[in-house]
Amino acid sequence: MALTAGTRIGPYTVTAPLGEGGMGIVFRAHDTKLQRDVALKLLPEHFADDADRLLRFQREAQVLASLNHPNIAQIYGLEESSSTRCIVMELVEGQTLQERLKRGPIPLEEALPIAAQIATALEAAHERGIVHRDLKPANIKLTPDGRVKVLDFGLAKAFQQEQSPALSNSPTLMDASVPGVILGTAAYMSPEQAKGKDADRSSDTWAFGCVLYEMLTAHAAFEGETIGEILAGVFKAEIATGA
Questions:
Q1: Residue 242 domain-assigned?
Q2: Domain of 62?
Q3: One domain for residues 86 and 105
Q4: From residue 175, how far is each of 7, 167, 182 by CA, in Å?
Q5: Is residue 16 classed as helix, strand or coil in its secondary structure?
Q6: Fewer Cβ neighbours under 10 Å: the N or C end of the chain?
Q7: Per the domain annotation, does 85 fall within a domain?
Q8: How many angstroms separate the most distant Cα atoms in the chain?
Q9: What is the set of active-site residues?
């Protein structure tokens, strides 16, 4: 089902597209019951039609929806209408950290408060046993009032399919054939995660360090033209120095 402005999904009225990534297309919508704007992440058809994956995702979403923290974009729940299924999420205004970095490095006095809020979000999630698994600048929003919001907490696990252990914990590798997946995800993966081992809080800590490095330099810590080149740098812990 193609969504356009005015499309209704339950109590939500779609108003405009917001973007597209490996985990689905995101739309801005209005909640007619609670009179608030939300973000709807449309589940890909191949995902929504897989009953086992959908059931597993619903279980994960219930856990993720329990996260309530000022620096974490909240998941409100799931909505279904006909053949369309989507995640209802908090709508976060502002630019992503990735967009901000296109303008160059962030001064230390500006970067530290951002980093502190990211760390606070990670700590809150880890205390609940929830790991992000795909922390990167594109998943971090900077709101106009100076607040940091971490997006898509835990969705990498929720979206993953049953597959070989070598790929199950690698959001980049498992989705390499899906249109819209950003090659840059590999640059934030910890060595153990890239090898297919279980991702845990230390994987998020590694990704956080990579994000902090990029904030201060405007260059990814690990760079390359292919996933293989990037991961080779990760395995060797060879930090890119930039131009």
A1: no
A2: 10-90
A3: no
A4: 29, 9, 10
A5: strand
A6: C
A7: yes
A8: 53
A9: 134
